[in-house]
């Protein structure tokens, strides 16, 4: 019987893994679709110009250069693209120049690869970029001389560079979706963790606080990934006419990112104190209610990242569709701030219960600031200690 049960469990696990693998593949393909379309458009344009307009029979470097410059990485910041283009252009031009001066051979290949790799490492922190640039220069050294004469391949590379930059501006990847998704995931983790803290306080369960602390310690990579996506999205939106109108939304996401970063730091401290406090097994419903309100607010802020959301997070006070309305959230936070008086929870200012309330005060101030209240007004809402 035990063997049959273990086999059934193993079969279920295998089916779940296959299903998760399929979902991961689907997500990966869907996320890469805009980049793939951008790359194909740029390669097609670069090949057409080099082959049909200029007359290069086989514009190999126009194609390979465009592919290497754009890539499938989600970080599409124009500055990084320009660095990539400059590094690869230097490698190709050096290779063309050395072929013209010294011909082809092993030592010429060694010189070009050495110089290209050093220049590429200076231009970009990505090891993959350095290898891509070296491949471009090696192609120039190893392929037969083109029909068009010296620096034909440098011209092909320039065409590829121009197409990469033009397509980045006119057919941009829209990284708002990835940034928004990463923000919602981070806020969901913060909300779930604060819920575990509230549960720990409500039931005197130290294990729940320990679980929250474990989750919160894993949020820093999420914070960093969201910051990278936002930086890329804003950089692209500044130069892309089609995305420039989304800059206000991205600026709001930046504010939400700073708020989430600060909230994660505060909650880690609160989770540690709660884990210690709950070891006595005593339920503290008053503190649990305060933290549960924080959990609810974090959930609202996370849902407000989607401009299409409705309810608490959707629509402005004036009713503008698609824009987040934070009025209700600010009012709830203002009410919560007014309740954060350690003396109400404990007459002993040094008691552990009072410490939790004191730790909640800067968290609520940061949440209010993230919701649009000035820092001075937010602090003024706190009871005097």
From TrEMBL:
Keywords: Membrane, Transmembrane, Transmembrane helix. One of its GO terms (cellular component) is membrane. It is a multi-pass membrane protein. Residues 46-167 form the Integral membrane bound transporter domain. The chain crosses the membrane at residues 33-50, 80-99, 105-122. Its main location: membrane. It is found in: Membrane. It comes from the Bacteria. InterPro entries: Memb_transporter_dom (IPR049453). This is Uncharacterized membrane protein YgaE (UPF0421/DUF939 family). It comes from Schumannella luteola.
């Amino acid at each position: 019987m035990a063997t049959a049960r273990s086999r059934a469990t193993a079969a279920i696990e295998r089916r779940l893994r296959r299903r998760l693998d399929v979902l991961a593949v689907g997500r990966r393909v869907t996320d890469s679709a805009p980049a793939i379309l951008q790359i194909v458009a740029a390669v097609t344009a670069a090949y057409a110009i080099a082959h049909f307009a200029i007359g290069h029979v086989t514009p190999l470097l126009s194609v390979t250069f465009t592919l290497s410059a754009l890539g499938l990485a989600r970080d599409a910041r124009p500055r990084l693209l320009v660095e990539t283009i400059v590094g690869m252009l230097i490698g190709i031009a050096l290779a063309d120049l050395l072929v013209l001066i010294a011909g082809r051979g092993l030592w010429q290949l060694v010189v070009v690869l050495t110089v290209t790799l050093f220049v590429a490492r200076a231009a970009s922190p990505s090891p993959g970029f350095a290898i891509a640039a070296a491949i471009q220069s090696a192609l120039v050294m190893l392929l037969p001389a083109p029909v068009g004469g010296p620096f034909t391949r440098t011209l092909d590379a320039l065409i590829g560079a121009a197409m990469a930059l033009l397509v980045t501006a006119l057919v941009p990847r829209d990284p708002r979706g990835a940034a928004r998704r990463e923000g919602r995931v981070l806020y969901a983790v913060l909300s779930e963790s604060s819920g575990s803290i509230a549960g720990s306080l409500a039931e005197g369960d130290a294990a729940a606080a320990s679980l929250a602390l474990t989750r919160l310690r894993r949020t820093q990579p999420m914070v960093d990934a969201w910051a990278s996506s936002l930086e890329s999205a804003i950089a692209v939106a500044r130069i892309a006419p089609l995305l420039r109108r989304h800059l206000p939304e991205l600026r709001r996401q930046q504010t939400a990112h700073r708020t989430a970063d600060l909230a994660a730091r505060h909650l880690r401290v609160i989770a540690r104190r709660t884990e210690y406090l709950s070891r006595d097994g005593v339920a503290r419903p008053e503190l649990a209610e305060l933290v549960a309100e924080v959990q609810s607010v974090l959930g609202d802020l996370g849902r407000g990242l989607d401009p299409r959301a409705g309810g608490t997070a959707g629509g402005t006070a004036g009713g503008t569709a698609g824009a987040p309305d934070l009025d209700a959230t600010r009012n709830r936070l203002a009410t919560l701030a007014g309740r954060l008086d350690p003396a109400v929870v404990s007459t002993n200012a040094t008691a552990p219960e009072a410490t939790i309330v004191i730790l909640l005060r800067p968290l609520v101030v940061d949440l209010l600031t993230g919701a649009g209240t000035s820092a001075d007004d937010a602090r003024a809402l706190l009871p005097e200690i």
